[in-house]
Every structure is written in structure tokens, then in C-alpha cells.
């Protein structure tokens, strides 16, 4: 794999608090942002594979959307644990969370993957894999959210990695949207971009739960069938977006939706070819809610609780030769 390393110089978490707070207050009726010791994220409602988000914090952007559009490049298959090793993460212990395309080569179906795995002493033999994937069931046509059996993926993946330690993080809460910024993650990242401009990359990753309200998601179906020897080609981004299936799911205090996110304030001159925001979600209660998070639908009812940390390094792994001018799934 071709790997390029980009060191980052993020501002302190205390400084980011002062940047994010006004944006939250303008967009939500009730909000808070502070620097806090990370709770044990292995516990409910988060269900992560490691306790925290600290220690050698980094982001891996693997593959990319050009592997899906204009035609799927099905040969682009990755093992995320091997990517963690290639990025120099310690074999002693670590964790990765994020968002990307599920391993069709393992599952025999397209899916939205919410990677969530940690390891101890060995990237593979010592792995604790709590990843979930969301698919469209072939028989029922309904959404199904299930545990992923391996640490592989396909096409594209955005991972936040760390030693999994419980250090200081950003704790953000928001309830009752009153502003026009319907996406929780975009509200945060747009505030950071506005403060620091488009020539400095500030990258964050972590987890948030949607405690209440209705939110919108998409899930990839199977690729359309084509005659033998032909490849399916999307003629434009609209056709690709129309191919996706869209779903609205409710959250509640007793049944929250867990969201794993990676996002960036900027990609100067597109030199890294970054996916600017990517969030995939899952549920552990058998309710089959999950997929690629877009935004809330009932602002007055929505409630979020997030724990985020900044990355100190980006590893760009197997970047496609052509990078799209914008994300396909705006």
C-alpha cells in the first residue's frame, strides 16, 4: 500500500472549547462543551472496544470515494488491522473507530461499516472486534444491523486510532436544534473552519450518541446486476445518490443510536484527498437502526452527547489517483 504521513499541529482542547461554544449556542437551545476526562467508553451507551480516545492519536484515510464512482473498483479491499500496523500503531495495545464501506468480500453484500475494534499484544490474534455493519436484507428488503465478523473493509474507510486510554477529551452536549445547521458534526467542523481557515487542517474523531429525535441515514444496497463481462458504471453523482436507500430512525434515552465519526476542518489544496466528514452509526439492541448519518429531521427533539479528540497525524493510505472535488453524499 502507498502510505503518506502528514503531521498536524492542533490547537489545545481548551482553545477549541472557545471556538465551538458559540456555534453550538447559536444552533441549539441547550448546549455545553468542555474539556473532560473521558468516561469508560466500553460501557453503555457507547459500547466501544476500548476505554478512551487518547494516546498516539491519529487518523487513517484509506482508499476513497473514487473507488465507488464512476464505477466500483471491487479489487480495493483492505484489512483495517493491517492498516493500523502499517501506520505504526503499537502492537501492545490500541483501538480504531470510524466509518467506511463494509467488506462485501466477506459478507457477500454491500453495507455501511461502523468499525470498532481494539487489540492487545497482537493486531490480529489479540483483537476485540465490536464493529457493526448495516445492510439491506436481500430477502425482506429491510435494514439489518449486525456484528461484523472480521476487521476487513472495502473501497474506502476513515479511521480514528489511538492507544485507547482515558485522557482528556472534548465533551459536547446539544439539545433542541433552533438553527439551520442540521448536521451535528458539520456544526462543529464548520465552526473550526471559520476560526482557523482553509489552510490549516484540524482533525477530530470520536463517538457520539443520539439520545432522542429522528435522524436521517443512508445504506448502500447491492450493486445492480449487469450482464456477465460488463461493469456497472454510475453516469453521474446524482445517479449514485439515487441508488442509495434512505431511512429515518428514532432515538430515545432507552434506545440511543451510537455514531462513530471522523472529520476535518480543511484539506489545504486537497493535498491529502481527504473525505471531510464521515459518520457511521449502529445499535446493539436488535432494533436494526444504523447506517451513514446525515442530519436530524426534528430539530426541536434531537439530543446529542459526544466525546471527541484531536489527531496529531494523518496517514493517507492507498489514495485513489483521482480525488473527487466534493463528497458525493453531501
Automatic annotation (TrEMBL):
One of its GO terms (cellular component) is nucleus. Keywords: Hydrolase, Metal-binding, Nucleus, Zinc. Coiled coil: none annotated. One of its GO terms (molecular function) is hydrolase activity, acting on ester bonds. Its main location: nucleus. Residues 19-317 form the DUF1907 domain. This is DUF1907 domain-containing protein. It comes from Extremus antarcticus.
